Amino acid sequence: MAKSPGTPKAKTAAPAQFDMNSRERKGGKGGPGGPGRGRDDKRPPSRIVNLPPTLVDRGEGWIIRKIGKVDQASHVAMGAEYQLIFEGHDPLVFGFLGAARDRAKEAPPENAQVAEVAADPAEESTAAEAPADGL
To answer: Which of 6, 9, 28, 74 is 20 to 30 A distant from 65 in Cα terms?
Structure first.
């Protein structure tokens, strides 16, 4: 015959082990570096550098260039900006390619210099003098 299991024995607690996640282990407070000193304090300050522009899209009278931004210390991409350049105008800067493409579909902005050249200043001065002569 088989033995009966009898009464269960009380389990003994496992021996104390070192806790890898304890606060004392992490050194967050009162460690050799002082409170709050961590990995980021050891890194050099980040310096964001612009990459050379690359052509993304081209249309009739406009182009879109992408200028990437990279952290020089860690070489991590920090984003990009898109420049929409109409012929004869300063670039318009956008954060998203879709926004730049949407704006490219619209008419180019009016150039203030072109409007001034269209109205000849010599004609304006003669028009202003004409009423003075009539008096």
So the answer is: 74
Determine how β-strand 48-50 pairs with β-strand 54-59: unpaired
Element (H, E) at 127: helix 121-134
Domain boundaries, the chain: 45-109
The distance between the two most distant Cα atoms of the chain, rounded to a whole number of Å, is 140
Alpha-carbon Rg for the chain, nearest whole angstrom, is 36
Q: Which of the residues in the chain have pLDDT under 50?
A: 114-118, 120, 125-127, 135
Residue 69 bridge partners (DSSP)? 50, 79
> Does the global pTM surpass 0.85?
no
pLDDT of residue 80: 95
